[in-house]
Amino acid sequence: MKKIFTLLVAVCFAMGVSAQSKSVDKVVGVVADKIILQSDVESQYLEYLRQQNPPNEKVKCTILNELLLQKLLLTQAELDSITVEESQIDQTINQRIQYFISQVGSQEKLEKELLGKSVLQFKVDIRPQVREQLLARNMHAKITEGSTVSPAEVKAFYDKMPVDSLPLYSTEVEVGEIVRYPVYSKEEKDQAKAKLDALRARVRAGENFGTLAMLYSQDPGSARNNGEIGYFSRGQMVTPFEAVAFKLKPGEVSPVIETKFGFHIIQSIDRRGDQVNVRHILIRPEFTQKELDKAKADLDSAIHYINDKKMTFGEAAVAFSDDVDTRSSGGMFKNPENGRTGLIPMNTLGQMDQEVVSIIDTMKVGELSRPIPFISQGETKQGFRLIYFKSQSEPHRANLNLDYPRIQEAALSEKQQRIFNEWVVKKRAEKFIKVDADYASCNEVQPWLKKSK
Known about the structure:
- Keywords: Chaperone, Isomerase, Periplasm, Rotamase, Signal.
- The protein has 453 residues and is α+β, with helices and mostly antiparallel strands.
- It has 3 domains: 4-148 and 413-452, Triger factor/SurA peptide-binding fold; 168-183 and 288-397, Chitinase A, domain 3 (Roll), CATH 3.10.50; 186-283, Chitinase A, domain 3 (Roll), CATH 3.10.50.40.
- It has 19 helices and 15 strands.
- The chain has helices at 4-7, 11-17, 38-50, 59-79, 86-104, 107-115, 119-144, 151-159, 186-204, 209-216, 220-223, 239-245, 289-307, 313-320, 324-327, 346-352, 354-360, 400-430, 446-452; strands spanning 27-31, 34-37, 168-169, 172-180, 232-233, 257-259, 262-272, 275-283, 334-335, 340-341, 344-345, 372-375, 382-393, 396-397, 433-435.
- Strands 11-4-13-12 form a 4-stranded antiparallel sheet. Strands 5-8-7-6 form a 4-stranded antiparallel sheet, with helices on both faces. Strands 2-1-15 form a 3-stranded antiparallel sheet.
- The chain is flat and about 80 Å long.
- 30% of the residues are buried.
- The model is unreliable at 1-13 and 17-23 (pLDDT under 50).
């Protein structure tokens, strides 16, 4: 079952274009009152091939097995009154469409070359399938919800693993940061807004917005493209920017707006369905050395509180840090592989922030750095940060002392899979199930075939 949702990440795309298939359709599977058509299998196999995988007819066996599992879950979800929010369906569809667009290059190319229809029509077509997938996922979660593993179960799981099968972990570290940015004065903000007001007036007087964006915008990514951002959907931009962008009519220029990046004026270029394309000019307030010195002094205060044991590092991060992501986790970096704080492989940390790797290379475990000049990666804001080198583990095979949370997670995953497999066996015995004889040779669907005899 673990594969069902990973293999079906792009299944909606295949479903959206399945009408193009010219094969004669037939029912190849039935679970209670739910049917699976040959075209359902073929459309997902088409997507498998489209992802440049080698032809392999046996993949259809895997696809049918996963569709049978999905229908079994869906049947039980209806009986148990499991629901899914409409907003969740919308979000899932939008995320998948954005993924498809990123793969092919543009919405226009997606519509013309792959979908053969508009994105809006595609959304309507795939909505029932997305609903089914999310209902099945929610049902799967309900089956295993509340399951836990005791320390004894974790140890038993670990003890049964052959030594040469234990995973090898490279050097890993626990690292935190406290970030402080200068606070712009009212005068500095007013100056930035005045610059944009003047540029807006020039546009209204007839000057080309794109030319002014190229000359004056402090967003280098869009400035080189005459300020043009490209098509985006709701939820992709910061809220103040997005709210204004979706209200503008093509050609209209917004008043000055403020976001966490600075101040903007926006010109609408085009609206297509639930996407808009705009240009913008960004001006950031300029701060003086006085504001920089104040930010550095704030971090010196944080160091004082930590060293005098008036605050832990985590408490100081909550009190002083301007970085929302790390502040919410007590200043500690999260491992992107699991979304939790703790040990992070050194190479993973390097992908996150190579500068941090260079900094801790000069530090001892347990040490707190002095305030270090810092420019944020996403917002290109200048400030300072403290780095806390909490711990380090050397390369090793997994063991209970160093890797208990990981082993606990693996033990829980195995237990949940066992619970789910037992549920499937029980429910399969209760439901009417029929599988087409063409799939009789498939190892994956043998349990379903036995039921259908």
